[in-house]
Amino acid sequence: MRDSEISMIDGIMVTMGGKEWTIPPLTLGQLRQLMPKVRQLSEIVGKVGETQIALIVEIVAAALRRNYPEINEELVENLLDLGNAVSVLTAVLTGSGLKPRVPPPGEAVAPEHGSGATRPTAAATAGGTSTGCSQPPADTAIPSSMP
Prior knowledge:
With 147 residues, the protein is mainly α.
């Protein structure tokens, strides 16, 4: 089978750079490899710097490569901006089966129906790591379904 005949993997639709992208869930192998980086995000919550940008770009690029093998981190870095980076990262992590954390007092709680992958008001957690930019992790992520 040629690459052009490969079907897209279902995922969350996001808009980056004026184009619609389908972000599939991370594989278990990708999650295992990226988990230390996801945890590292919690250490720099609320700060926007080179380290945080690099982590977000790497995680998003890994997910996108399942549907867009030609994508590289430089392109992802140019598609993400301060307006979409958190919601795209949240789509990657919640679409990969990580449950949103319980938001701190005063932060809106999204409804519990559906997959929750597109809920920008609730940050995802992975291994005790919050993917939101304003609050530290509240608990440990639990895969939403396991065999």
